[in-house]
Design a protein that fits this description.
Elements: H1 2-16, H2 22-28, H3 33-36, H4 38-61, H5 63-83, H6 87-97, H7 101-114, H8 117-149, H9 152-168, H10 170-193, H11 199-225, H12 229-253, H13 261-288
Helix pairs in contact: 1-7, 1-8, 1-9, 1-11, 4-5, 4-6, 4-7, 5-6, 5-7, 5-9, 7-8, 8-11, 10-11, 10-13
Length: about 290
């Protein structure tokens, strides 16, 4: 079930992650905005056409081979998008990226195959929630990547998430993300304590925070969806409530004449809390005899 949520989430993310970068992409390729807009319209049109044929191909060749070929095409096309130096080459690879539509189509078909009708309806709800949550988060993260590293970073990130999710599973993805965040903030703290802090050090640490959150958030969301619907709601409530509380604390500890150290300490503490949380999840799964995810 987790794999299905991840695949549908990846499909949704590939549609929206790079949207804030469209103006910069048009400038970089010396193309009109109308032309670069085909990266959205053309992708969706190709995606729609592919969905007509994915079902019959899956019935003929099997769900797993078609799913694997679709994900492979997506990964290779994402690499092509990241390396493209010509707008037409980019658009061609962007169309091939729509191979990830196998996640949308076969995810629902696999749920139907695995569960009776009544239970399948509930399971499809998890897949649908994944499709709804990821597009809401992806543009904000994509905009940060564009401002920090350039528009190609969004495609490198898509490739990284696709490869890691398929290879490592949800828990290890969260572990890597939280560890990356904590390591970046720890480095910024050490440099700050050594009187080497500054704008470059602070925003260098934020780079690791952004990358770590990008790896953690989709996998954590998928993990919550795989439990049951109330768990997802509780996780969302905790995230929003914790964010509001931490914003209040940050306002209290920062003020005129204060440097960035208190804020880095606060963020480092939350990163450590996330790392402890995923370690407890892994330990609990082992105690219950569940297969590591």
């Amino acid at each position: 079930m987790l794999t299905l949520v991840l695949l549908t989430g990846a499909s949704a993310m590939s549609m929206t992650l790079f949207l804030p970068s469209l103006p910069r992409m048009a400038e970089d390729f010396a193309a009109t905005y109308a032309l670069i807009q085909l990266a959205v319209a053309g992708y969706m049109a190709t995606n729609a056409i592919l969905q007509i044929f994915i079902g019959p191909f899956a019935d003929r060749f099997g769900r797993r081979p078609v799913l694997l070929w679709g994900v492979a095409a997506f990964c290779l096309a994402t690499l092509g998008c990241a390396l493209a130096t010509n707008v037409y080459v980019f658009l061609a690879f962007r169309m091939i990226q729509s191979g990830i539509a196998v996640g949308l189509v076969l995810g629902r078909a696999v749920v139907r195959d695995m569960f009776p009708p009544d239970e399948a309806a509930a399971r499809l709800g998890y897949v649908t929630m994944g499709m709804a949550l990821v597009p809401m988060m992806a543009p904000a993260f994509g905009g940060w990547l564009d401002e920090t590293l350039g528009w190609r970073a969004a495609f490198w990130f898509l490739l990284l998430v696709g490869l890691l999710a398929a290879r490592l599973g949800v828990n290890r993805m969260v572990m890597i993300g939280t560890s990356l965040t904590a390591a970046g903030l720890a480095t910024a703290l050490i440099l700050n304590l050594a009187d080497l802090g500054g704008v470059a050090v602070f925003f260098g640490g934020m780079f690791f925070v952004g990358m770590g959150n990008g790896l953690t958030m989709p996998s954590a969301t998928s993990g919550m969806l795989s439990v049951r619907a109330p768990a997802s709601g509780l996780g969302g409530a905790i995230a929003i409530g914790s964010g509001a509380t931490l914003s209040l604390i940050a306002g209290l500890i920062l003020g005129p004449g204060r440097d960035e150290a208190p804020l880095i300490w606060l963020m480092f503490g939350t990163a450590l809390a996330g790392l402890v949380a995923i370690l407890l999840v892994i330990r609990r799964e082992r105690q219950m005899g569940l297969t590591p995810r």
